[in-house]
Design a protein that fits this description.
The chain is mostly helical. It contains nine helices and two strands. Helix 6 packs across helix 8. The longest helix is centred in the last third of the chain and has 28 residues.
């Protein structure tokens, strides 16, 4: 999956946007089934179509329209979920924002002048976070980070993930002249690692809320797509908000 993501990232904005749209549709399917008692139906079709439309608007350079489509999609999905007698219609409809906003963020980041390098760094940070957290948690163990949400996560894992993300971030400017200074990128990488793990915990909490172990069984042995990209969604949204609000202040890419 990582190799495929890197290949699509290098193929240009159009192909990248198409990948995000396809992923968003899958996430819409998983979310509707997760919150809707395993059912997909017309409510799920509406949600999948809405998030694809959101990504398409962002890919065409209209992220504001994408946000407007999120709001319209939430209202329409809520009404359809209510009319079809689904449990938790608010949760079902909220998936459009949960999926749509991070997808807009990814497309917007890729469209920046140094977008390919930015998104590559983001991918590496999230992957390094997962790997570092896994090994630090296994080798060190210790106090649990959030035992009632995710019993296997530890504070050592959080620190290990942040350290791994900071390390790979510090090395990144050696290969990409467009990147910010190594010390700045290392701090940013560690911060994004925390955001990514918060996204992981958020999805774990939602799954526990609905008594579901995995978002789906789409990926044998690894659950669903949501289970693989929960940290990426949070980190992408956090990075895009920072870059948009600060104009790249402190984290300036050339």
């Amino acid at each position: 999956m990582a190799a495929g993501a890197l290949l699509v990232l290098s193929a240009g904005q159009t192909v990248f946007g198409a990948l995000i749209a396809a992923g968003a549709a899958i996430l819409g399917w998983e979310w509707t089934r997760l919150c809707g008692g395993g059912r997909f139906g017309w409510t799920g079709i509406l949600q999948a179509g809405a998030v694809v439309a959101v990504v398409a608007a962002a890919a065409l350079g209209w992220p504001q329209i994408g946000v407007a489509l999120i709001l319209a999609g939430i209202a329409a999905d809520y009404l359809m979920a209510r009319s079809s007698g689904r449990d938790h219609p608010r949760w079902v409809a909220a998936g459009i924002a949960y999926i749509g906003l991070p997808c807009i963020a990814l497309v917007w980041l890729r469209a920046q002048p140094a977008g390919q390098a930015i998104v590559l760094w983001l991918f590496l940070v999230v992957w390094a976070t997962d790997i570092g957290a896994f090994f630090a948690g296994r080798l060190i163990g210790g106090p649990k980070l959030a035992p009632h949400i995710s019993p296997n996560k530890t504070w050592a894992g959080l620190l290990g993930g942040a350290t791994s993300a900071a390390t790979i971030s510090a090395a990144f400017p050696s290969f990409f002249d467009s990147a910010p200074p190594a010390h700045v990128l290392a701090v940013a990488g560690a911060c994004l690692a925390v955001v990514a793990q918060a996204g992981d915990l958020s999805e774990s909490w939602i799954k526990r809320r609905f008594g579901v172990k995995d978002a789906s069984h789409l990926i044998p042995g690894h659950g669903g797509l949501f289970d693989r990209v929960d940290g990426l969604l949070a980190a992408a949204l956090g990075l895009a908000i920072w870059q948009a609000l600060t104009g790249g202040m402190l984290l300036a890419w050339k």
